[in-house]
Structures are given as structure tokens and as C-alpha cells.
């Protein structure tokens, strides 16, 4: 994906998550993938180019974000990737009628703490419908004051921390960004704490 097409919109987390997908590209063909809060959809585009069956989604209240998803697909010769309006925390007909999924992607969706509960409501709903699915997420630690661990516990979700060096994402240039501040990026895989029958 040529960087210049995305200008300054690609946040460091999207690059890290895309790198994780690339490192696991051999497992992606045929996988059913949903990206939430997709924006320019770098991770979703990478997954689709690696052979996954991808659906992109962003807030139905942000038509410009949905348009950005569609533009990214067209620029990357992926005209058939569906783009859905899904608002976090809202059980909409679109959410209810989603086909089964294997992997949910979320790049820097844990941005504003007031959204965390809504995001996890949506993730929990999707994982309960797809108990074997996983939520792959990269997020930027913006404050020492919050952690999503307590919320994960509340929602009966567990997380596995993936060290960036384990998939070559700890290099300075990879997640470099002109944004202020030092970036601490975490990569996690979130799943149901216990699924039925285990």
C-alpha cells in the first residue's frame, strides 16, 4: 500500500497491526475478517490483499469515514470489499445480520476512554456470536491512568499481550509519526475468557 496515498492519516497503530497481519499472512486466506473503526483501513486492506474475506466498518454517523474506507478499497483494487456503518455499543440490524467472522481488527480504537465500554459491548456481542473468533488490536497508551484490563475482566474477556519485537514491529521507522509525544504501542489479542465447551 503506497504510503503517499494515505498522507498523514495512517496512525502508528495501523502500521503495527498491518505488520502483524503481514507476519501471519499465511494463515489469512479464506479467513473472515471484520475491521471496526476502519478509517483508511490499512489493516483491512492488507488482510484482503493476503486473501482474507474482509468487511470494513466505521461509525454509521460518520459518512466521511465510510467514504474513506471505500476510497482505500478502490485505490487498492479491492472494489468488492463491503463497507458497513456500525456504531459501537449499538446493536443494529447491520450488526445482527453480520455473517460469521474469525478475526475482528481494531487499530487504535481505544482512543477515548468514554468509548471503551461501547467498543467492548460490540466486541463481546461479536465474540459471543463467534466464540472461536479473536479481536486483534493495537493501541497507543496515552495515559498511565487507564487500563482496559479491568473492563476486559468485567466483560468476561481475556487478553494475550503480543510483544512488538515478536513480529518485527519494534523498529523506530515502522511506527514513526509526526504526532507529538513518545508512542507506546501495545498489541493484544482479545477473546472470550471461557467459551462454551472448553
UniProtKB/TrEMBL annotation:
Entries under Gene3D superfamilies matching the protein: Vaccinia Virus protein VP39
State the oligomer form and interacting partners: Interacts with HSPA5, HSP90B1, TUBULIN, UGGT1 and UGGT2. Interacts with TET3. Interacts with STPG4.
- GO terms (BP aspect): chromatin organization; methylation; regulation of gene expression
Please give the family membership noted in the entry: Belongs to the methyltransferase superfamily. METTL23 family.
This chain's function reads: Histone methyltransferase that dimethylates histone H3 at 'Arg-17', forming asymmetric dimethylarginine (H3R17me2a), leading to activate transcription via chromatin remodeling. Maternal factor involved in epigenetic chromatin reprogramming of the paternal genome in the zygote: mediates H3R17me2a, promoting histone H3.3 incorporation in the male pronucleus, leading to TET3 recruitment and subsequent DNA demethylation.
Query: Which reactions is this enzyme annotated as catalysing?
Result: L-arginyl-[protein] + 2 S-adenosyl-L-methionine = N(omega),N(omega)-dimethyl-L-arginyl-[protein] + 2 S-adenosyl-L-homocysteine + 2 H(+)
Q: Name one GO molecular function term.
A: protein-arginine omega-N asymmetric methyltransferase activity
The keyword S-adenosyl-L-methionine belongs to this UniProt entry's keyword annotation: yes
Task: Alphabetically list the UniProt keywords.
Answer: Chromatin regulator, Cytoplasm, Developmental protein, Methyltransferase, Nucleus, S-adenosyl-L-methionine, Transferase
What this protein is called in its record is Histone-arginine methyltransferase METTL23
Q: Where in the cell is it found?
A: Cytoplasm; Nucleus
GO cellular component term, pick one: cytoplasm
What Pfam families does the record tag this protein with?
Methyltransf_16 (PF10294)
Classification via InterPro entries: Methyltransf_16, SAM-dependent_MTases_sf
